[in-house]
Amino acid sequence: MNRQAVARELVKVAKLLVSSVSRHCDLYKARNGKWYMNLGEEEHDEYRDSRTYGPFDSQEETDEFLSAYFSNPGSSEVDDSGKQPVPTRSPNGDPVVNPERHSRW
């Protein structure tokens, strides 16, 4: 089993142990037609604490990324209006995380 496969299995086990962690999560379609996600890193994090991930091609792709790499945030808000600006920084000040380069480890 390669390292990525092991990592995916560990995420699955961790999700079973921590099925839901209450923290900020919102998914939105930006003016460029791409989807982005703001997600709190820790339990009880608010919008200002969240990190932005994207771009994604669809809401479904964003949901799949969330499910693959993170425990359930408890709930999420979705804005599919396409009126949000394209993010240049996360609400917490970090750079936007490209999902193709993202790794939990």
Please provide a written account of the structure.
Helices cover 25% and strands 26% of the residues. It has 2 helices and 4 strands; from the N terminus they run H-E-E-E-H-E. It has helices at residues 3-17, 59-69, and strands spanning 25-30, 35-40, 50-56, 77-84. The two termini are 16 Å apart. The protein has one domain. It has a 4-stranded mixed beta sheet with strand order 3-2-1-4.
List keywords for this structure.
105 residues, four-stranded mixed beta sheet, 2 helices, 4 strands, 25% helix
What is the averaged pLDDT score? Answer: 84
Oligomerization category of the chains in this entry = single chain
Structural class: alpha+beta
Strand tally is: 4
Taken as a percent bin, the fraction of beta residues is 25-35%
In angstroms, what separates the terminal alpha carbons? Answer: 16 Å
Shape assignment: globular
Major sheet summary line: 4 strands, mixed
Count the domains.
Answer: 1
Query: Helical content, roughly?
Result: 10-25%
Low-confidence stretches: none
